[in-house]
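Lecture notes, unit on protein representations.

Consider one protein chain, 298 amino acids long.
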Amino acid sequence: MASIEEHDGLGNDERRGRDDRRTDDRRTRPRGRGRGRGRGRGGKMRGHRIEVPEERRRRGRGGGQHYYELNERVLALWEPESQFYKATISSIHWDHNFSVVYEVENDKEYKLESVDCIQEIRHYEYQIGERVKALFSKEGRWYDATIQSLEKGRYTIKFDHRDNDFRQRREHIRPVLPVGTKVRAFWFNNKRFLPATIKSDDVNSYTVEFDGKTGEFDGQRPDCIVPARQYDINDRVLALWGRDRLFYEAVITSWELDENDRRKYKVKFDGFNQEFDARERNIKPIRVPAINNTSNQL
């Protein structure tokens, strides 16, 4: 029987490169905000809350929330490699951006350019024999693979181009997305997830067509694509309130397809009789906070 290799998503060369960058070439890395929790701009740390400039506070409804919680584990963009790695939300800033501490660099904090530089960790469940996409860390590329078994929270997979099996972390496995699937794909020019459609499966990546853009774009990595969520009438959700850029509880009252066959919704916020238009990207499922917030927010 072929041996099973441990496959944590970071090869030896990749780890060595990370260490070299930390000590010898910090200019290539996003500029951090020092050890511990950065203070951000315009806010003052006072107790265990966020204090924001008065002009921003007047626009808010009160009771809103950011989508990500302080100390929540997420996937965050590491710009030098254009890849997402596990991190922890370490600060929430008044401008609605976040700072994170990467798991492989747990002594330094980085402020990210936008909330789209963060993905929630989705816990996909796979069946034995299921076809998936998985990261082959020695090459830094994604390949087709098959689920072999599940043990102690890790899947054993077999890559199509390899003879032996590998134990793989969940965050380095993605379901196969059929052609025509509505997704949000990462547009690196402005670091945003934009609505797109899967046009072809290219083994190592996908080709997508972004809504409203001409032409198709290949080379989209599976970890830079998020399947679009769909909501039904009467679903309770969190919806974005545009004036303060915070999320509030609401209910889906109706939906219809737009010119790109993508759902656009109407929602009714709690305490309001009026309906508001909402796109899928501005609606989030209601989630139980991952942990209690006991640290300072900024």
